[in-house]
Automatic annotation (TrEMBL):
Pfam families: Peptidase_M23
Keyword Signal applies: yes
Organism annotation: Streptomyces djakartensis
Positions of the M23ase beta-sheet core domain: 64-161
Record's protein name: Peptidase M23
Keyword Signal: yes
Segment forming the signal sequence: 1-24
Keywords: Signal
Length: 181
């Protein structure tokens, strides 16, 4: 009986002292803890709805969703979430894609991707957070409605792009203050 009580106390203390998992806006784990919170703007809109969240594949070629799909109107501006250099702006498999290598994010650096996008930037250009890099293209979307697929990679590893954004940008709904007694 005493052993059971001790084990119960140890498990309870471990659960209470462990840091809570970071969650994305879609409720999935935020991903790699080494991803710095460098994002300063959503890629589209002010607080777009996440149509499909990040679902990391179990294996390199496994099923999953290697980014997030965000609601976006056709032709809406697509913005860089953080400062960096455009590493690619062109078409891949018929879709417009823009990739930005994020400044000061380690070796190998983080790289964000946006698709389908009609690019307004060129490879090698420096971009600032919130700077327009293109417009939402209606062709090539894999969503039922128009959306932007936003991805994040470090080298060959896919990460959750929502982990780039600070919690205050992920928050939905009005702030609520507790009463002071």
């Amino acid at each position: 009986m005493c052993t059971r009580v001790i084990l119960l106390l140890v498990f309870t203390a471990t659960a209470l002292l462990a840091p809570p998992p970071r969650l994305s806006a879609a409720g999935s784990p935020a991903g790699d803890a080494t991803v710095p919170t460098v994002g300063r703007a959503w890629p589209v809109g002010l607080r777009p709805r996440v149509l499909r969240g990040w679902e990391p594949p179990a294996t390199v070629y496994g099923r999953g969703h290697r980014g997030v799909d965000l609601t976006a109107a056709p032709g809406a501006p697509v913005r860089a979430v953080a400062a960096g250099r455009v590493s690619f702006a062109g078409r891949v498999a018929g879709k417009g894609v823009v990739s930005v290598e994020l400044a000061g994010t380690g070796d190998p650096p983080l790289r964000t991707t946006y698709e389908p996008v009609t690019a307004s930037v060129e490879e090698g250009e420096e971009v600032e957070p919130g700077e327009v890099i293109g417009a939402v293209d209606t062709s090539g979307s894999h969503c039922a409605a128009t959306c932007v697929h936003w991805g994040l990679r470090r080298g060959e590893t896919y990460l959750n792009p929502l982990s780039l954004l600070p919690p205050w940008l992920l928050h939905r709904g009005p702030s609520r203050l507790l009463p002071v007694y």
